[in-house]
Specification:
Length: 469
């Protein structure tokens, strides 16, 4: 089998292992000197940021990170086109898997869920060697969210550690950009700690410049914040603002930071193209196979979801992103990376693409591309897929109640021409309850209508429970 599917799974059913927390943990030091990881809304906790925290507080913060990352591991249902088995850290009702199996024409799927409620998947599998051996020696490939130390050191892990760092990725982008018209790399400078960052932020604000402040590591928007001169002044200065951002868990405490030029995309409005992703797979032989280009939904700096499919991204922008993304992939392959990666871009006023980071792992958009491929395979070509990673719910719901809520909405989505696919279903009982969904349709209009219907129905849950009081 040719193309990215052949390089990714060989066209075979695979074991999908939701090791999001494991991947994040390898970049974590507490107190942090390299940044703290989370994934989007579902894994960004309100964690205490005190330099001399008691051991119990550190344990509580880790438990919070794990729980939230385990929610995001629900995306494991979409790591490949057809799973043979799913390994999930949190408990997931079998009804969700049956729902996806009907819509995506899967064969029987083994479910190993709830295996790591209080730890990482690697720790759980180490305690269950028979299960680990069974999964590793099956007939199909094993797909992970990302490469982790428990799978052994080597060039693949070294490449991940190197280029997941935003300063290293920026250096790679800068080296490649001169050969790619239509690509501009934002200027970036390092600061060795908060004091140096505060001085440089103040100097930039005095010149009227907005700044993107980044931790070297972070995903889903965590560790990245746009700071305008007005916000800095309102906070009482750069040092006061940085202290507040650490307290609010927007930035990690201590450690180096990166100051990056803010790329002005022009006024928001209909037709504005702002946040793009290019995804690809590097095969075992080092060849790079393009997957596609999608338009991401980003709230501030926080990733919310993506839309992929024919016509979503204008051909010119898609071609520019692919050419540059493939060049990045060739360099990543030379460094030893194998498997999925993506390159994220923002656009400037002239519609030039500015690369902002590379992810050497699966991502939220990867799941959308996989679902689109599967739907095209079993229902015919032409699908568009939109993922909505964390749609707010108006009330806290058990999985059983959430299933009933979504099942009642499924026919309404179908009447609009959209297929509803549940992805992240374990966060409905969080203090800020949310659900991760995918919608598939043949037009952007159908996706928009179905998303609006779902948003209104989720919000109405709150009014329904208020009426019962």
């Amino acid at each position: 089998m040719d193309g990215w599917v052949g390089a990714w799974t060989g066209g075979r059913r695979a074991v999908h292992v939701g090791n999001v927390a494991d991947f994040n943990e390898q970049f974590l030091l507490e107190p942090s000197s390299r940044g703290r990881f989370s994934v989007g809304r579902l894994t960004t906790g309100r964690l205490a940021a005190v330099g001399s925290a008691a051991e119990s507080s550190a344990a509580e913060r880790r438990a919070d990170r794990l729980r939230r990352a385990h929610h995001y591991a629900g995306l494991a249902v979409g790591y490949g086109p057809e799973p043979a088995a799913l390994v999930l850290p949190a408990e997931v009702d079998r009804a969700w898997i049956d729902w996806l199996a009907r819509e995506l024409d899967w064969g029987p799927v083994e479910l190993f869920d709830g295996i790591a409620p209080d730890g990482t998947v690697a720790e759980a599998l180490a305690a269950r060697p028979a299960l680990a051996e069974r999964l590793a020696t099956g007939p199909g490939p094993v797909l992970f969210w990302g490469r982790t130390p428990d799978r052994g050191e080597g060039p693949e892990l070294a490449a991940v550690r190197r280029y997941e760092a935003k300063d290293a990725a920026h250096g790679l982008f800068t080296a490649l950009a001169q050969d790619h018209p239509g690509v501009r790399v934002p200027r970036q400078e390092p600061a060795d700690g908060p004091r140096a960052a505060a001085r440089r932020l103040a100097a930039r604000a005095a010149r009227g410049r907005a700044t993107v402040l980044k931790s070297p590591h972070g995903v889903g928007g965590y560790g990245t914040v746009v700071i305008t001169p007005e916000e800095l002044a309102a906070a009482g200065g750069a040092r006061a603002l940085l202290r507040r951002l650490v307290r609010e868990d927007v930035l990690p405490p201590g450690g180096p930071l990166l100051l990056e030029e803010y790329v002005d995309g022009g006024p928001a409005g209909t037709g504005r193209l702002r946040d793009l992703t290019f995804d690809a797979v590097i095969g075992a032989d080092g060849r790079v196979h393009p997957v596609g280009v999608g338009e991401m939904a980003v709230d501030g700096t926080s990733y919310q979801g993506v839309t992929v499919g024919p016509g979503v991204v204008p051909p010119g922008a898609a071609a520019t992103a692919e050419r540059f993304g493939l060049a990045v992939g060739e360099r990543l392959a030379e460094a030893g990376h194998r498997g999925w990666y993506d390159v994220d871009f923002v656009t400037d006023r002239e519609r030039r693409l500015a690369p902002t980071e590379a992810n050497l792992r699966l991502t939220g958009p990867a799941v959308a591309f996989v679902l689109r491929h599967r739907l095209d395979e079993v229902r015919g070509p032409g699908h568009l897929v939109r993922t909505l990673d964390a749609m707010p719910l108006g009330a806290r719901l058990s999985q059983e109640a959430l299933h009933g809520h979504l099942d009642r909405l499924r026919p309404a989505c179908a009447r609009l021409g959209a297929t509803l696919l549940p992805l992240i279903v374990t966060a409905g009982h969080e203090p800020e309850p949310a659900v991760g969904l995918a919608l598939a349709a043949r037009s952007v209009e159908a996706l928009d209508a179905a998303q609006a219907l779902l948003g209104a129905a989720h919000h109405a849950l709150g009014r329904m429970f208020e009426a019962l009081r």
